[in-house]
Design brief:
Strand order of the largest sheet: 7-1-6-5-8
Strand content: 5-15%
Number of strands: 10
Number of helices: 17
Largest sheet: 5 strands, mixed
Radius of gyration: 22 Å
Helix content: 40-55%
Amino acid sequence: MYYRQPRYFGEFMCVGDDCPENCCYGWRIDWSKSEIDKVKNAENISSELKELVENSFIPNETNEEEFQIKFDDNGKCPFQTDEGLCKIQRELGAEYLSHTCTVYPRCYISVGNALYRYCYTSCPVIIKSLLNNENACDPVNVSSNKDTGKKYVAINEAKNEKKYPELKYRGELFEFFYELISDKKIPVESAIILGALAAQKLTEFVTLKEYDRIPEALKAFRKQFHNAAQLNSIANIKPNYHLKFGFLSQMIEDIVENGATILLRDETGTLNIDLYNEGERRLSEALKGREFFMRNLALNLLFEFAVPFKFPNKTIFENYSLYVTAFGLLKLNLIAVCSVDKGITFRTCGQSFVYYGDDKLVGMTAIICRGICQSVGKEEALIKLLKDNKFTTPAYLALLVK
């Protein structure tokens, strides 16, 4: 057995209190009863910490063996010190932390006999790697023989395959989309749009219950990756500012808590095309020599949205649409934060962060990914919003990323 993972995974190290943000604010942090008991029964635990443990967890309403940390009024973890460190780890050691606290930002996915692992882009350290290392998302295989005790998110369990036969090709489909988005001969936005065309056709096969046509279809799609006429057609799609300033901006306000599109408004409160164009120019300037950043983001989002089977009860196209939308929202917000040359203040969970330069890109990406990728219910809300507004074709999805 082996893991399939992006290269940065093996290089990740938490920077602790040097982190510009804090994953101990506002998150749902799960602990099991056995994990809590281990802390309470530690031989050298202080009376102060033991009392804090006794009063800092709330039970899960549906599982008596599961608990969540009870935050204070500002959304802060009660075990966090003023220096941003963990009282449990400081007093007892890292081995007394919960699985959730130990693993984040790492995530593990099982796909039949295949294992994938990656890191969430809500972590600034990961985003900095994507921003500064062109090879950060190169896929590598690593042995899993020594790894035990990890909790995996199962994407295609056997019981699901009976109900959704297309799931048996989950691995092949993920690798297809990863190969497509990785292709440096194709602009990343064009690659994403090509993926939408493929997702639509694959959905047609599933609708017709022609599941076993998926492998041959993937071979045919690969032959079209560098079709000059098709790529030129995609490249000639013009940006739709009405869409960007209407539907896309509204999605940000409805779904994401800390969207930055307000920065694209002029003194009258109107979304301004000139501000957008200036933000796009400055983003391009900021990424000069690091244009790979947007591709790295797109590749990591493939993991985060388990493309194309985030929700087994949704079609391949619907799942892929969610992925496209997330990329479009990220791109629009990055343009927005670059539209001004001053520092940007972000507020989240009772904390304020002021970002300049690269940190604006890092901070905005972390906040948007946190809001979309790791907030319960947000993904399905986005799919519903797309469906309600009839964004059900590759042509419409193309407008979200151009």
